[in-house]
Amino acid sequence: MPKVKIELDHREMRDLLTGAEVLAPLMEIADKAAGKARATAPVDTGAYRDRIEVEVDETDRTVVRVVAHDPKSSLVEARTGNLKRALGR
Questions:
Q1: Residue 6 burial (CB < 10 Å; 0-12/13-18/19+)?
Q2: What is the pLDDT of residues 51-80, one digit of tens each?
Q3: Residues near 30 by Cβ (< 8 Å), separated by ≥ 6?
Q4: Alpha-carbon distances of 6 from 3, 9, 17, 48, 69, rounded to whole Å
């Protein structure tokens, strides 16, 4: 059987992985997860809930994260798993 050699065009792959075709569905998923996390967030002062955001970063590909920026976010997540549950849905 002959060997098959595949060569990737790295520039094209980078453009694909950082393009709108990848960003749009990632943003849709992240926005839904962030909305769910806000809706199910425990509320004391509202600071945790109000600081749940979607962040976009780009390295060799587009990365979308749902994060909570309140200083108590780690404690809230450890006790409730709110972001984890929202991202799992």
A1: exposed
A2: 999 999 988 889 999 999 999 999 999 999
A3: 54, 64, 65, 66
A4: 10, 10, 18, 48, 43
* Two structure tokens written together for 39: 């809706």
The DSSP code sequence of 15-41 is: HHHTSHHHHHHHHHHHHHHHHHHHHH-
Report yes or no: 86 and 37 within 8 Å, Cβ to Cβ. yes
Structure tokens given for 28: 């849709």
Answer whether 46's CB lies under 8 Å from 76's CB: no
pLDDT for 5-56, tens place per residue? 988 888 888 888 888 888 999 999 999 999 999 999 999 889 999 999 999 9
Q: How many CA atoms lie within 13 A of 19 on its CB side?
A: 8
